[in-house]
Structures are given as structure tokens and as C-alpha cells.
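Async update (no meeting this week)

Hi team, since we skipped the sync, here's where things stand on the single-chain job. The sequence we agreed to prioritize is pasted below, unchanged from the tracker. I ran it this morning and attached the output directly underneath so nobody has to dig for it. Comments welcome in thread, and please keep replies under the output.
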Amino acid sequence: MAPTKPRASAPREKAPQLLPTGQRMGQLEELLTLLDVLEVVQAGLKEGSEEAFASLQRLLQALHGIARRYPSPRLRQALQGIPVHTHPGDPKAQERLVQQVSEVVAALQEIVEQMAIPESHLLLIEPDEETAALLQTMLVGPGRMVTVVRTAAEARNLLQQTPATLIIMELSLPDEDGRNLLLWLRGRSMTTSTPVIVLSDRSEPHVKAECYALGADAYFEKPFDPVNFMATVTAHLAQHTMRQGVDPLTGVLDRAALEEAFEHACRVYPPDRFPICVALVDFDNLQAINQQHGPDIADAVLQQGVQLLASMLRPSDLIGRWTSDNFCVLFLNTPPEEAARCLERALMALRQTPFQGHQGQEFLASFSACILRVQHSKAPLEKLVSEAQRCLERLGDRRQGRIITPETPVAPEKRRVLVVEDDKDIALLIHYRLTRDGFEVMCLDNGREALEWARQHPADLVILDIKLPGLDGFELLQQLRQLPAYRSTPIIILTCMSQEQHVLRGFELGADDYMVKPFSPIELSARVRRLLERHPATA
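Output:
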């Protein structure tokens, strides 16, 4: 049967999933395993082995999966010509198949070279020179550096200077029992989680059990099965490196891993071919949430919010934590407008997710973001993030739920007035007058709701009534003055209560002005302007 005709390639080559170092290490191990197997298959094909041809057919599915994940035209082209259901019969077909497999091997090696992964450091503690040489030959490869020592003392000295990704050790060491060294390894913070594989000629069951009890991750008796041994090495390397570069609170990349991933993306996928966008995501009002509900609730907002954001992103996107409440998203092969649509979907989902405060009350969270298109492959991520931060700062502290680019026009910021009035006609009159005067007006009719709003939003001036549901005006005034953002905010009491004791109490609690209903809207507007002239705009 003729090979399936490949689909026409898209105008823009699909960007592969960009992964942190640990996950790319797992991919590297997968590629190296395929390369090892293909070398065996290739040797069998040269001898005309039908078993080797059958193995190749089974490997093709994995190889086509690799081709879909990596932008390698060379690998795709090499795979297209390999027959699917035809057994090699004549020498020419056999020779052609061997050559095609050679092209696949070369393409895989090219992908490995492009991954640019720091080497894993494997420490081999083996006193026998012949065994050490054999193991070193097996272990050395792309992405791996192997150091051989003969004694426990040499291992201790080396590990105090250079960390190891994986330790392989013999128990029968010339200077001490290897179990004592294993105990020492698990007692040090630098090696407490480092995978340790014991490879020894000790076959007693209690020795093996003791090694596992002391923290060994695997135990092999000599002589050992090399295939099983190398599979175990690969698995522990991948598992260990997967844990590196991750923010412990949110589970996304930490800043160092994010910067490394960005450099890797720009090096392997140049921005002129794979458009890259960087988005700085800032969770809104996190400081207010922390003050109102405590750090545990604020951390929960970050955890759930980032997990929700990550779940809405595509496989080719990558998110990492930049500062305490700022996160950075890398979009590969994505123009800014497409990145904005992706973030808008995540923002909509977050706004529909209620969070619970420390007293069980529900509140909603949001984030704001600035998206930048990467222009140069050598642009440092830190510089791009700083530029995005400056763009967000142009919005001031009223940016809740805004997604912008440097080109987004930002209107001059209006001074915000919070009006707390349960009489709808009076509230409408004040709103109309102050809006016409150029102010942004927020009207609420409940004292408790106004306090909750103020805990999460700043205002340049407050106008409040005394007789309010939920929380009366005096209690609201007292509570507002306890909020850091409202300690110096001008506050006008507007009420029908004109008794002297009420006026005195209002000023004692921190009011800046006191007006009695009925009132003149023009006079109220003048007093608002006078107070705001004396107070700088909210930062």
C-alpha cells in the first residue's frame, strides 16, 4: 500500500509546546531512548531481519508523534518515504530502507542538539575500574556528564562542591560501608531528594531492604540487566529534573526557569519565524484581599487563579511567576490579538469563579495584563516585563480586568467619588451633577456594601449619608478611617441630621465637611472641588 499522502502544511509552522528544563529533560530522555532503539533496528535491517522491520513499523507511530511536536521538516520528510506495510524483499529496497532510517536518526540527533539543555551531572561511586569504565560508557550521552570516584571520601568532597542530579553507588567501598554514605546523603539538604541507585554484588535480602529503608531509590545486583538498569536511570533523571524550576505555591515555573525558557524559545524559534508575545499578568487588588482576609486567602486566590489561567491557555503557551502577584505568559507563534483573545477567555472564567473570605463571604477576583510582541531574539525578558509593567501603570489603580498593549490608548484618569446614599433620587441627582463636572462616580445604597467595596477599590473623595442600611454613616466613617487607603481621603457627610451633636460626632470621627439636606448641587460640587484641590490624586 502506498504511503498516506501528507496533508498540506499550514502557512505558519505550528510552534511546539515550550517546556521548562525538567520537562525538556524528560523529552530528551525519550529522544535518546528512540535513538538507541533505532540503532539496534538499523543493524537488524542491514542483516535483512524481519523482526527488525516489524519493530520499525511499531516505532513509526512514536516517531510521527515526535514529528508533530517538533518543527523539524527534515524528520517529517524522512518519515514520509518509509513503507508502512511492505516487507523488504530485494537488496535495493533493504538498502533504501536502511538509508531512510539513517535520515530519521540524523533528524532526531538534530532535534537533540537544538534543545540546548544543561547537562545532568551523574556521580558514579564505583571502586572497580572495569565496572566503572563500562558504566561510564553506558551513561555518557547528550545532556549527561558522568563523574567517577572510587571512595566515599571522594564522593563527600565532590558533593560538597558540586551538586549531582543522580548518584549511582556500590556498597562495598574501600574506606567505609556504602550504607553509611547513603545515610549521610539523606541527611544533607543538598542531597536529601537526589535519586540514588545502588549497584552492588551484595545479594542478601536484608541488605537490599536496609538500603531502601535508608533512602535508596533502586537496587541492582551484579551482574545486572543493562536494559533495565538504563531504563531506571532514565526514569529517575526525568522525575528529578521535572521538579526543578517550579514555583512551590502555584506550581507554575519560577522566574529563573521562565527566563531560561524564554531564551531557549528565542534561540530555537526566532521571533521573525515564530512570532512570540510576552504578557505580564497582574492580579488585581491582591494587597487589599490580603489585608481583609489574610495571607492564606490571598494565596488561595493566587493558586486557584493561576491554575484556572493555566487551564485556559493552549499547550504551546507557558506561564511562570515573576514576582509575588505578577505572572508572565509566553505565547509562541501567536500575534498580540490572538494572545489577547486567549487572556480574555481566562479573565471571563476567573470573573465567574467566586472565592470565599475568612468569614465565608464570597468575593470575585480579576487580573489585568499587558501584551508585548517580541521584536528581537536577544531582547532580555526582564526588559520586556519592565516595559509591560510601565504600560499597566499608565492605567493607575483602576485597571481591574483590563488587557492592553503598548498601543492601547489610555484616557486621562478621572477623579473618583464614592457616594453612599440610600435615597435613589438624591443619589441620581449627585451622580448627574458630579459626572457632568468630569468626575467618575460610584453610587452604593448600603453601608456594609460600601465598606466592602472600599476595601478593594480606592476613591479620591467620599460622600455619605448617616441613615444607611447595613452600617450607618458614622460606623462607615469610622471603619473607612481605619483603612490605609482612606486615612486621608476627603469625606463629606450629607444628611438630614442637623443637630449639633451629630455634626460634632461626624467631625470627631474624621469627616472633612458636613452638609445638611436639602442641599444645593452647585454648592456640593464646589465643596467637592475645594477638598480635592487640597488633596493629591490617588496614586
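Quick observations from my side:
Confidence is low (pLDDT under 50) at residues 1-21.
Residues 21-46 form the longest helix (26 residues).
Reply here if anything looks off.
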